[in-house]
Amino acid sequence: MVKERGRKVIAQNRKARHDWSVLDTYEAGLVLSGTEVKSLRQGKAQLRDAFATVDDGEVWLRNVHIPEYTEGTWTNHEPRRSRKLLLHRHEIERLVGKIKETGLSLVPLQLYFSDGKAKVELALARGKRAHDKRQDIAKRDMQREIDRAIADSRKGRR
């Protein structure tokens, strides 16, 4: 039996880094049913509107869309059901303390397989305002211009 190695990304939340300032990241396991795992292995999932909450000392991933398994029968799963996340107790307690601060949320960044197990990368994040987004875009454009000028000077152009 050959074990799967490495990290295979299933879904990314690309808009998360645009809308949120990431302060810290956590890796959490997922409690999934069999048909959910099979659907994920086909590379089907969406994190677009997903978020995580802490309820009664447990972390739950909400609003993640994992479509029904095409080969499944009546045992298929609910596509947008809440899924329990597996974190260490001290990580959950740290998250509870930080979430009580105003404006902090848990946002999933990636859903992936790590050594054959489904994982989610959670970000402790603060929402960006419009002027923060404009500043980030301006910084990115400025860095692109700098990189372009350096590349042109290395090639002998003016």
TrEMBL record:
It comes from the Bacteria. Keywords: Cytoplasm, RNA-binding. InterPro entries: SmpB (IPR023620), SsrA-bd_prot (IPR000037), SsrA-bd_prot_CS (IPR020081). It holds the Pfam family SmpB. PROSITE patterns: SSRP (PS01317). Belongs to the SmpB family. Required for rescue of stalled ribosomes mediated by trans-translation. Binds to transfer-messenger RNA (tmRNA), required for stable association of tmRNA with ribosomes. tmRNA and SmpB together mimic tRNA shape, replacing the anticodon stem-loop with SmpB. tmRNA is encoded by the ssrA gene; the 2 termini fold to resemble tRNA(Ala) and it encodes a 'tag peptide', a short internal open reading frame. During trans-translation Ala-aminoacylated tmRNA acts like a tRNA, entering the A-site of stalled ribosomes, displacing the stalled mRNA. HAMAP family: SmpB (MF_00023). This is SsrA-binding protein. It comes from Saccharopolyspora halophila.
